[in-house]
Each structure stands twice: as structure tokens, then as C-alpha cells.
């Protein structure tokens, strides 16, 4: 009976994930019709501004081509669509920036239109951010008949904004990154204005400096607000999951939620509630933050290890979402499954010591211990997902480096799943046959078709 109930819960969770995916697919329509919306927006603004018909047609064709290229890129990058609220953020910021380009009289000086590309770089994807910058710069150049040197100046600033976007959203580095951008903007303006630094020159240095500064401040504040919203969703998801699976934790979650309604920043303290709240409300928020101390240490220790861990985290989160498992726990598990390597020796033992020192939630500690079959078998679904992600990526990377072409990625995935099943690796984790097949198909699609790892 107990096993049947557990299986039933898993099937229900899977059904929920399928419904969510249908809603997401419907919402992607907004991305696909973005070129049409962009052209119509441009035509409406240009009609108001009484622009010449021929110029209006030229700009509309340019917008259509550039925006279509951007949409093509988005549709071929699955991770972009999977970013929370990306399907709404991208069209809104792009159209807002397009409006600012057309409505502001001197957008090359009053560069508030740059906010859209910067936020997309900070919140969603760097490459997409640079595409937005370049699209808007070329549209701006044609619609306002900018000089070549001014267009070059804007393109260079777009590259700098994108390269420094990660630093701009971190409190520890935002000041330094802002200084680099502000000084670069003034220096480029000075050079391209033939080294003239007078009030009657063609460039209003003070206005340009102010507008860039305003863009940086607003981008920083909005990116932090976005991260808080995401963290809030994470907390609700985790609390909701625990309400379904454990009656004891039900009471703790309800108490925590009631407490947060009265005062969001206040945490009540009785023994079990305090431990739960720190494990979910605080720890996951900190652990998933890009400027987390341990992630920074990992990146300094090894860029390869950092990139591998981020890849495993992102892959595991998407796999968990597919079968209705805990995305947040799976992502955190991927990020920290090999954190012990920054210390050395036995990386699992060292990872568990770090986990104790930094107050990791118990489930996350278990993933560190259970992701490696040589150490322990996974006892819950999220640990199994992280183990599979790590196995698949590591094996494909190893075979790719050896140059052995006789094993295709989809065959590797198929063999890994069959081997784990034969050895009973997943016997204790509660992974049903249906979800096992869904996960297998997921990894085959990820690696078999793209063949990029």
C-alpha cells in the first residue's frame, strides 16, 4: 500500500510537469511572434513621429530580420526558455528598448535603451544580451543616421556591458564593474570626438555619464528583485513539496508560512522549525547565489570544475522538472556534488565536512554522499538524477577526449541506464519505471541530437 501510494504521488507529479510544459509551449508563441510585434511597434511610433515612408520601410525590414535571427537563437537554446519568466522578460525588455530607441531624441547620449540588453545578459543569457544590444544599435544607427564612429562606440559599450554583466549583479563587484564601464564610456567619447572635451562639443559628456550610471543602478536593483522573486518561488515550491510527503514537516512548513505572512524578515525559533527554516529559507537562497563563497572558491580553484558543476546543476534541474521532482534540490546537488575537490584528498568526505561547516540541508548532504555509486546508492530521486547527470556528462566527455567515434552519445546514455538498472543502483530511490524511461529519453535528446559534449 505504501509503495502504491508513493508511485501514485510520482505519477501525479509527472502529470503536473507535463501540464506545465504545455503552458510553457503555449507561452513560447509570444517569443515566436516577437518580430511581428516589433515591426508593428516600430510602425506605430514612426507614424506618430511623421517619419518618411521609405525610411520607415527600411527600418521595419531591418527590425524584422534582426529580431527573427534573435528568435531563431532563442528557439535553439533550450536553457533560455527554461529560465524562470524568460518568455515574458525577453519580449518586454526588447520592445521597451525598441520604444526608447525611437522615442528618445538623442539615444546615443541618453542611453536608457541599453537597460534591456543588460538585464537580459544579467538574468537570462550573455549571448542573447549581446544580440539584443547589436540589434538595437543597428536600428538606432539607421533610424537616427548616426556617424560610423558613434555606432562603433555603442557596439564596444555593448560588448563591455555583456562581459561585465555577471559582475554587475553581485554586490561584491558591482562598484568595480561600474567604474570600468563609466570610465570606458567617457574615454571612448573623448577619443571619438577628436579629443575635444569642451561644453560646446557634439558630445554631452555629463548627460552620457549620468544615463549610463542610471542604467547600471536600475539594472542592479531589478536583478536583485528578480533573484528575490525566484528565491520566494523556490521556498514555496520546497514547502509545498514537503506538505505532500511528510506530516511532521507539514506542521513546520505551515508555521513557517504563517510566520512569514506577519513578518517576512522575522524567523521564529523552536527547535525543529528553526532547523527547517535555515535549511530551506536561508541555505538554498545562499547556496544558489552566484557570489556564494563556496562557488567563488570553486571557480578560483578550477574553472573546469566550476563549469562542470554548473552544467550538472542545470541539467539535473531540468531533468527533475520533467518528472515532477525537486528542481531546486537537484540544481544545488549538481552545483555542490564535487565541492570537496577544492580541499583535496577524499573529495566526498571533504565535501561532507564543508557541508556541515556551511550548514547544508540534510538532503543536499546526502546527494554529495550518494552521487558516486562507489560510495553509496541514491535513496531518493533527486540524488539519482544528479548521479545520472554526472555519469552521462563525465562518460561522454571522457570518450570524446579519447577520440573514439564508435560510441555515439545516445548509445552511451542507453548503456549507462541499462547498466545502472541491471546493478540495482536505483532500487532504493523510489524511481518508477515511467520516470526512468522519461529520464532516459531526456538525456538521449540532450546529448544524442546535439552531440556537443
Describe this entry's structure for a reader.
The protein is mostly helical and 453 residues long. It has 3 domains: 1-27 and 292-453, Hypothetical protein af1432 (Orthogonal Bundle), CATH 1.10.3210; 33-229, no CATH class; 246-287, no CATH class. Helix content is 76%, strand content 0%. The chain contains 21 helices and no strands. The protein has helices at 2-32, 34-48, 53-75, 78-82, 86-103, 114-123, 126-143, 148-163, 165-168, 174-192, 205-245, 247-262, 271-287, 293-301, 303-323, 327-336, 347-357, 362-370, 381-402, 409-422, 433-449. Helix 6 (114-123) packs parallel to helix 11 and helix 7 (126-143) packs antiparallel against helix 8 (148-163). The longest helix is centred in the middle third of the chain and has 41 residues, at 205-245. It is elongated and about 70 Å long. The model is unreliable at 1-26 and 237-282 (pLDDT under 50).
Short descriptors:
453 residues, Hypothetical protein af1432, 3 domains, disordered N terminus, mainly alpha, 21 helices
Q: What's the overall average pLDDT, rounded?
A: 78
Integer tally of domains: 3
Helix-residue proportion: over 70%
Rg calculated over all Cα atoms: 25 Å
Structure at a glance:
The chain has 453 residues and is mainly α.
Amino acid at each position: 500500500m505504501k509503495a502504491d501510494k508513493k508511485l501514485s504521488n510520482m505519477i501525479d507529479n509527472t502529470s503536473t510537469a507535463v501540464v506545465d510544459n504545455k503552458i510553457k509551449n503555449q507561452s513560447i508563441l509570444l517569443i515566436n511572434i516577437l518580430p511581428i510585434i516589433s515591426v508593428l511597434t516600430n510602425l506605430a511610433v514612426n507614424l506618430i513621429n511623421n517619419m518618411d515612408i521609405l525610411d520607415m520601410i527600411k527600418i521595419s525590414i531591418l527590425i524584422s530580420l534582426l529580431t527573427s535571427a534573435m528568435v531563431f537563437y532563442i528557439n535553439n537554446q533550450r536553457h533560455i526558455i527554461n529560465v524562470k519568466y524568460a518568455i515574458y522578460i525577453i519580449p518586454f525588455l526588447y520592445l521597451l528598448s525598441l520604444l526608447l530607441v525611437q522615442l528618445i531624441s538623442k539615444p546615443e547620449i541618453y542611453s536608457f535603451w541599453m537597460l534591456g540588453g543588460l538585464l537580459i545578459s544579467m538574468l537570462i543569457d550573455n549571448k542573447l544580451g549581446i544580440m539584443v544590444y547589436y540589434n538595437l544599435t543597428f536600428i538606432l544607427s539607421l533610424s537616427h543616421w548616426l556617424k560610423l564612429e558613434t555606432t562603433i562606440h555603442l557596439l564596444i559599450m555593448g560588448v563591455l556591458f555583456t562581459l561585465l554583466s555577471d559582475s554587475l549583479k553581485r554586490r561584491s563587484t558591482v562598484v568595480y564593474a561600474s567604474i570600468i564601464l563609466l570610465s570606458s564610456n567617457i574615454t571612448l567619447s573623448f577619443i571619438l570626438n577628436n579629443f575635444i572635451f569642451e561644453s560646446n562639443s557634439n558630445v554631452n559628456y555629463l548627460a552620457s555619464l549620468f544615463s549610463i550610471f542610471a542604467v547600471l543602478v536600475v539594472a542592479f536593483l531589478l536583478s536583485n528583485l528578480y533573484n528575490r522573486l525566484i528565491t520566494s518561488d523556490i521556498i514555496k515550491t520546497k514547502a509545498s513539496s514537503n506538505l505532500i510527503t511528510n506530516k511532521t514537516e507539514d506542521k513546520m512548513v505551515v508555521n513557517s508560512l504563517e510566520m512569514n505572512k506577519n513578518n517576512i524578515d522575522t524567523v521564529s525559533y523552536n527547535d525543529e522549525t528553526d532547523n527547517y527554516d535555515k535549511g530551506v529559507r536561508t541555505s538554498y537562497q545562499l547556496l544558489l547565489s552566484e557570489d556564494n563563497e563556496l562557488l567563488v572558491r570553486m571557480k578560483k580553484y578550477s574553472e573546469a570544475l566550476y563549469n562542470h558543476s554548473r552544467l550538472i546543476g542545470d541539467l539535473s534541474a531540468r531533468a527533475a522538472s520533467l518528472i515532477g521532482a525537486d528542481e531546486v534540490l537537484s540544481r544545488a546537488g549538481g552545483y555542490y556534488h564535487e565541492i570537496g575537490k577544492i580541499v583535496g584528498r577524499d573529495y566526498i568526505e571533504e565535501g561532507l565536512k564543508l557541508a556541515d561547516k556551511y550548514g547544508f540541508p540534510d538532503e543536499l548532504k546526502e546527494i554529495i554522499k550518494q552521487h558516486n555509486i562507489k560510495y553509496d546508492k541514491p535513496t531518493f530521486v533527486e540524488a539519482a538524477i544528479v548521479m545520472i547527470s554526472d555519469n552521462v556528462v563525465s562518460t561522454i566527455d571522457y570518450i570524446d577526449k579519447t577520440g573514439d567515434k564508435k560510441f555515439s552519445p545516445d548509445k552511451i546514455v542507453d548503456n549507462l541506464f541499462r547498466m545502472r538498472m541491471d546493478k540495482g543502483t536505483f532500487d532504493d530511490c523510489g524511481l518508477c519505471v515511467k520516470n526512468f524511461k522519461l529520464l532516459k529519453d531526456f538525456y538521449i535528446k540532450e546529448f544524442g541530437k546535439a552531440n556537443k559534449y
